[in-house]
Amino acid sequence: MLVNRLTSFFAALLAATALALAAPAMAAEPGYKAVQTDVSSPEGKVLVQEFFWYGCPHCYYLESELEPWIEELDEDVVFERRALALGQHWVPLTRAFYAADQLGVVDDTHAQVFHAIHEEGTRLTDADSIADFYAKQGVDREAFLEAFNGFGTQNAIRQTGQIAQDAAVQGVPALLVDGRYLVTGRLAGGNVEMLRVVDTLIEQIRDERN
């Protein structure tokens, strides 16, 4: 009886030990998930799309890592920002991005919008306050408002929303690679780690094409 009990005990102990040793490998994730969207990269390129919102603190803090990363991208990688509205109160700042994009002033205003909101506590919550802010950055106020309220902006918001829905984007920041792989901070283990995962995916896609 005692021998049987001891045998059972050691067998259970060995099984538990084996399970514990295997747990890290079992829990390991690639840092991304495969998704299906209608997005495709330009021929010979790898498209990386960032989903963000100006009011998101995680998006703001990622910028300090994202900007130098973008500058080091090879010529076969295309980076594209997409402002995403996951709630009604996200819409004004999402409109702001696409209005600035249509006017060709994103490069001149992108960092300033983030800084104003997250460092200076500036409230940009409606068309007038946002237009006033962009005017202070040297953007024509009337032209900005026209773009802000125009069809092009509304269409861009709709298109981005559809891509995000297809890719099951539930929060920002998020990165979509080649329209096939969604990378999030939760999957990657942190927002900065997202960029390392994207680097790996870019190499993987290059290898697939060779």
UniProtKB/TrEMBL annotation:
<comment type="similarity">
    <text>Belongs to the thioredoxin family. DsbA subfamily.</text>
</comment>
<feature type="signal peptide">
    <location>
        <begin position="1"/>
        <end position="27"/>
    </location>
</feature>
<keyword id="KW-0676">Redox-active center</keyword>
<dbReference type="InterPro" id="IPR050824">
    <property type="entry name" value="Thiol_disulfide_DsbA"/>
</dbReference>
<keyword id="KW-0574">Periplasm</keyword>
<dbReference type="InterPro" id="IPR036249">
    <property type="entry name" value="Thioredoxin-like_sf"/>
</dbReference>
<dbReference type="InterPro" id="IPR013766">
    <property type="entry name" value="Thioredoxin_domain"/>
</dbReference>
<dbReference type="Pfam" id="PF01323">
    <property type="entry name" value="DSBA"/>
</dbReference>
<feature type="domain" description="Thioredoxin">
    <location>
        <begin position="17"/>
        <end position="203"/>
    </location>
</feature>
<keyword id="KW-1015">Disulfide bond</keyword>
<dbReference type="InterPro" id="IPR001853">
    <property type="entry name" value="DSBA-like_thioredoxin_dom"/>
</dbReference>
<keyword id="KW-0732">Signal</keyword>
<protein>
    <recommendedName>
        <fullName>Thiol:disulfide interchange protein</fullName>
    </recommendedName>
</protein>
<dbReference type="InterPro" id="IPR023205">
    <property type="entry name" value="DsbA/DsbL"/>
</dbReference>
